[in-house]
């Protein structure tokens, strides 16, 4: 059996870093060079379209090359756009068409960065790969553990909880013990030309474009009524939406609801989506029962530990920017889980992930099927029509 990379001397260990052209991956490479590893970079082309004519990826590749020039390390490139569209983007579209709110960053990590990229790096002779994620990995003869990053505002373990353990065992996250402010300072001190480059935002392949406009290129929403859920105006129709695919549970912005006779000036929230009748239900009640469910049902879980016995107490996080809440997990329908919270999380959205923790230790994850302990969402993929090929 080959010696695990963490038992090799750095000088004899070849690490290929996923370089994105940003400051995080650049400092990842810098840190490994300083630690004495054999370091090489690899830039991934995952998306081939750009509204502006010149693909943003080309600019990012130039930045990655500039970093490699400073560090005096080679830079490889690989085009995973076909794999991305088949394994991430297709699922993204199908999920929206079925009324879910998918998390493409979770899928991208599982399918591309820690699968396609990892295997490509191994073909290049890498003993391990490294990325600029703010999370920690501990490796020893007892196994590998995924832990939250030290910077609570940047921790990205949520996005890594669906990655196979076999891939994490061959990975490094050098930024896991660092704070973002220190990362930028380190990049500046080393003379890296991207030390002040802004962080990328938005969905990974969309960036800062108008999300609804982007989605309309691929899916055609079906119009339906907007109706009030709860209160004295319960059931009243107050408008028409362009398609349920453009909304998510708990959404506040972009609803286009002005003054409604008999209603207060308080903001409106998406309470639920009835796919059978194409009805968008909205509320002004932040504590509406549909927004504060204490239970959810998941698909089959992916564990980063030995499969636990049920019931099991832990904590769970249902969105990236929400905190983990104490809960009990138990066996659910179709090999999934039923998760019952001590305190209800806000706006449980099918398609997002429930990620489970014991303190800082990430235990695993499961895609959310539905709020409550009821049946899964119906298959409504035919409710939305594809308008162009993905």
UniProtKB/TrEMBL annotation:
It holds the Pfam family tRNA_Me_trans_C. Gene3D superfamilies: Adenine nucleotide alpha hydrolases-like domains, HUPs, Translation factors. The keyword Disulfide bond applies. Its main location: cytoplasm. The record marks 133, 352 as: Interaction with tRNA. It catalyses: S-sulfanyl-L-cysteinyl-[protein] + uridine(34) in tRNA + AH2 + ATP = 2-thiouridine(34) in tRNA + L-cysteinyl-[protein] + A + AMP + diphosphate + H(+). Its EC number is 2.8.1.13. ATP binds at residues 18-25, 44, 132. Residues 154-156, 319-320 are annotated as: Interaction with tRNA. Keywords: ATP-binding, Cytoplasm, Disulfide bond, Nucleotide-binding, RNA-binding, Transferase, tRNA processing, tRNA-binding. The active site is at 108 (nucleophile), 204 (cysteine persulfide intermediate). It is an enzyme of class 2 (transferase). Residues 213-283 form the tRNA-specific 2-thiouridylase MnmA-like central domain. InterPro entries: MnmA-like, MnmA-like_C, MnmA-like_central, MnmA-like_central_sf, Rossmann-like_a/b/a_fold. Residues 294-368 form the tRNA-specific 2-thiouridylase MnmA-like C-terminal domain. The keyword Ribonucleoprotein does not apply. It is found in: Cytoplasm. One of its GO terms (molecular function) is tRNA-uridine 2-sulfurtransferase activity. Catalyzes the 2-thiolation of uridine at the wobble position (U34) of tRNA, leading to the formation of s(2)U34. Belongs to the MnmA/TRMU family. This is tRNA-specific 2-thiouridylase MnmA.
């Amino acid at each position: 059996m080959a010696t695990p990379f963490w038992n090799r001397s750095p000088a004899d260990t070849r690490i290929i870093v996923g370089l994105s052209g940003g400051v995080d991956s650049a400092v990842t490479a810098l840190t490994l060079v300083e630690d004495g590893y054999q370091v090489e970079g690899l830039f991934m082309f995952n998306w081939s379209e750009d509204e502006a004519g010149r693909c943003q990826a080309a600019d990012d590749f130039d930045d990655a090359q500039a970093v490699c020039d400073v560090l005096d390390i080679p830079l490889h490139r690989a085009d995973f756009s076909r794999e991305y569209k088949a394994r991430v983007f297709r699922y993204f579209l199908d999920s929206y068409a079925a009324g879910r709110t998918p998390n493409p960053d979770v899928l991208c990590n599982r399918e591309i960065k820690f699968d396609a990229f990892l295997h490509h790096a191994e073909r290049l002779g890498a003993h391990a790969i490294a990325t600029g994620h703010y999370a920690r990995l501990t490796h020893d003869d007892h196994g590998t553990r995924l832990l939250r990053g030290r910077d609570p505002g940047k921790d990205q373990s949520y996005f890594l909880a669906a990655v196979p353990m076999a891939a994490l065992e061959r990975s490094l996250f050098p930024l896991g013990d660092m704070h973002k402010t220190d990362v930028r300072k380190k990049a500046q001190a080393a003379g890296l030309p991207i030390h002040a480059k802004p962080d990328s935002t938005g969905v990974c392949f969309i960036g800062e474009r108008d999300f609804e406009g982007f989605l309309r290129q691929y899916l055609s929403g079906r119009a339906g009524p907007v109706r009030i859920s709860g209160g004295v105006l319960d059931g009243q129709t107050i408008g028409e939406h362009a398609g349920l695919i453009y909304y998510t549970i708990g959404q506040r912005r972009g609803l286009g609801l002005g003054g409604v006779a008999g209603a207060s000036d308080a903001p409106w929230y998406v309470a639920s989506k009835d796919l059978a009748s194409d009805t968008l239900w909205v509320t002004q009640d932040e504590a509406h029962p549909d927004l504060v469910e204490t239970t959810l049902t998941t698909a089959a879980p992916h564990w980063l530990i030995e499969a636990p016995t049920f019931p099991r107490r832990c904590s769970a996080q249902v969105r990236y920017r929400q905190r983990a809440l104490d809960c009990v997990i138990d066996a659910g329908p179709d090999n999934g889980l039923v998760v019952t919270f001590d305190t209800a999380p806000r706006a449980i959205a099918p398609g997002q992930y429930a990620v489970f923790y014991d303190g800082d230790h990430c235990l695993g994850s499961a895609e959310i099927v539905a709020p409550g302990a009821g049946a899964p969402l119906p298959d409504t993929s035919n409710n939305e029509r594809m308008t162009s090929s993905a």
